[in-house]
Amino acid sequence: MALESYGSFEELKSRLDEIVQAVNDKDLPLDQALSLYEEAVGLGLRASDLLEQGIDEASVQEALASEAPAGLADDSAQPAVSAAGAHKEGQADGGAAQQGQAAASV
Q: At what angle are helices 30-67 and 77-105 packed, to 10 degrees?
């Protein structure tokens, strides 16, 4: 099966599980084990491609949601962004507050 035909992690994992079972057979000839190893490496690369594709799609969706008018934006994306922004702001404020406390105690 061509690597591009694996469209999901579940399909990839299923095939990798089959390979693991086959390689665990002590009677498996070395040339077949090597062939299965090479296939497994290719499957790992395909999994990496799927992961990058998912990250890219999520980034595009997030960018589109942030550019949409307030009434049309997906509400589920806003709390995550707001929480991340609040966390970053809290770090910046917390750091300044801690420095001020350290200076006051000296």
A: 80
